[in-house]
Automatic annotation (TrEMBL):
SUPFAM superfamilies: alpha/beta-Hydrolases (SSF53474). Gene3D superfamilies: alpha/beta hydrolase. Keywords: Hydrolase. It comes from the Bacteria. Residues 18-199 form the Phospholipase/carboxylesterase/thioesterase domain. The keyword Repressor does not apply. The keyword Metal-binding does not apply. This is Alpha/beta hydrolase-fold protein. One of its GO terms (molecular function) is hydrolase activity. InterPro entries: AB_hydrolase_fold (IPR029058), LYPA1-2/EST-like (IPR050565), PLipase/COase/thioEstase (IPR003140). Belongs to the AB hydrolase superfamily. AB hydrolase 2 family.
Length: 223
């Protein structure tokens, strides 16, 4: 299979060829690229495989995964295609690299957060968890998609209190939606605009480490 998306892969420096690793797939915002996402998760590069997925549609000096009719209103056909292609890419990468399929995480900002939340709902427990930074869930995903249970999926949602692109109420709406779906929700607000503060970064890095430790401990107990 030829992957739909260009991507960067970072393997742990001292990789053990007999071991499978947790993975973080990063999804960037509209007009950005996969390299801008790596710095957010670089501190985890010794413990996770990190795969930055670049949108396949050029936009200015960057890229996007789908186009919009208007702000907050994706072109449905392009969005549907992106969801299908990203699910296929996640499977492709899982087969190509030494990835533990029970420890797959998505981390997205803005358009990438929108896709991360939507993929959690379409893939269910095929994902271990998501980090969604300053995004939302399209209404058609909630009402028209075939949704899987996210009861076992860990979800970290954060939003800027002064977000000038997606107002903070949207963050509250996303959190309220997931709160009804999973007991594994963390929701944080930060005094920022449409961006990721150092505090936000430290919080989701610690959250990812703790979530991985929980599943690793559970595996040891069951072994």
């Amino acid at each position: 299979m030829n992957p739909t998306y260009p991507y960067d892969v970072h393997l742990p420096a001292n990789i053990d060829t007999d071991k499978k690793y947790p993975v973080i797939f990063t999804l960037h915002g509209k007009g950005s690229n996969e390299k801008n996402m790596f710095s957010l998760v670089a501190p985890l590069a010794d413990d996770f495989i990190i795969i930055g997925i670049r949108g396949n549609l050029p936009l200015g000096s960057g890229y996007q995964y789908y186009s919009l009719k208007s702000l907050g209103n994706p072109i449905r056909e392009m969005f549907d295609e992106a969801i299908k292609n990203l699910e296929a890419f996640i499977q492709y990468a899982t087969e190509k690299y030494p990835i533990d399929q029970n420890k797959r995480y998505l981390l997205g900002f803005s358009q990438g957060a929108i896709l991360s939340m939507s993929l959690a709902l379409t893939m269910g427990d095929k994902l271990k968890g998501i980090v969604a930074l300053n995004g939302y869930i399209p209404d058609f995903v909630k009402t028209e998609y075939v949704l899987k249970s996210v009861k076992e999926v860990s979800v970290f949602v954060s939003h800027g209190e002064y977000d000038s692109v997606f107002p903070v109420r949207i963050g509250h709406e996303s959190a309220a939606y997931f709160k009804d779906q999973t007991p594994r929700l963390t929701f944080n607000l930060y005094p920022t605009d449409h961006g990721v503060s150092e505090e936000n970064q430290l919080d989701f890095l610690n959250w990812l480490k703790q979530d991985l430790e929980l599943i690793t401990t559970k595996e040891r107990e069951e072994a």
